Automatic annotation (TrEMBL):
Compartments it resides in: Cytoplasm
UniProt keyword Electron transport present: no
GO terms classed as biological process: L-proline biosynthetic process
Gene designation: proB
One Pfam match: AA_kinase
Keyword Repeat among record annotations: no
TM spans (from-to): none
Residues that, per the record, bind ATP: K9, T167, D168, T209, G210, G211, M212, A213, T214, K215
Protein family according to the UniProt entry: Belongs to the glutamate 5-kinase family.
Name of the protein this chain belongs to: Glutamate 5-kinase
Residues reported to bind substrate: S49, D135, N147
Molecular function (Gene Ontology), one example: RNA binding
Residue stretches making up the PUA domain: 275-358
EC number: 2.7.2.11
Amino acid sequence: MGQQTIVIKLGTSVLTAGDIHLNKPRMVELVRQCATLKQQGHQIVLVSSGAVAAGRSQLAQPVGDSISEKQMLAAIGQGQLIHLWQSLFALYDIPVAQMLLTRADVEHRERYLTARDTLTQLLKHQVIPIINENDAVATSEIKVGDNDNLSAMVAILANANKLVLLTDQVGLFTADPRTNPQAELIAQVHKIDDELRALAGDSGTSLGTGGMATKLQAADIAQRAGIETVIAKGSEADIVLKIMSKEALSTTFMRFDAPLEGRKKWLLSAPKSTGTVIIDNGACLAIARQGASLLAKGVVGVSGSFVRGDLITVTDSQGQVIAKGLCGFSERELDTIKGCHSLDIASALGYKASSVVIHRDDMVLL
């Protein structure tokens, strides 16, 4: 099997066993499995939900569901949560470290590299990083919003071999198993398509923020980065060990064989697209088949608001997403030069500018 780096995402429904408070026996079980994997030489990273649940258990009076109240609970619970993990892993003499991230921490290349270096050093010194979104201060603009997508970003940061998403479901089914007895478990997925996304539906629990749809988003990001993703039921006995020995009832998303190099992994995982350019069929073919940069000549439409250096989405005329990349122009500039030959850009704008809209090195194909 070889030594692997494994990112394990623990959903709120797993850590609370369906209650509103953290379930310590469940957490002990998960710690024991992580300790066994450590003994086998694997590196473990945990992405742990549960701060709000931990905070709730500290207050005598009930608390509402507004954003500010949830942020308050997260602020109270974050310390409780890491203290609990710390005391449980101490039973096996395993040190842990807390990392609180927001999208802003991975959106800028420099901060992304700093977070990656911190994670690398923790693993090198046999420490288990325990990661959560910094909910107490995160605003909607910098929020990842769910720990499924956060765990995919973390898997890329950690250069992981495997991403394990533990939830209250066995995996992805051909229909909703709670309402359809004919529903069958999909054991392996090679490519995530619209049909599969339709099967994922929405959230299956009121306790967490991530449903099966966000797990597919996470698996999609991880697959493209060359990371295998497994969705499995966190309450199953020895579930993590069974996943490692390929004995678990689960859905496995096979990794793509040609993973992206580092900079493109960052493009895939981190920034939120702020605008869109629509390109013609000729540009689609040049990008997809010839490895070309995107030129102004191929742009037929521009939408959204962005400045030079922002990440934008590239779509065809039918709205199908083709790529993401860092744009060399603002939306106003691009609207002015769309359809122009590269040699005519400077005269169209009245000043010297880039000759390409998105350089090949700054683009990731989707």
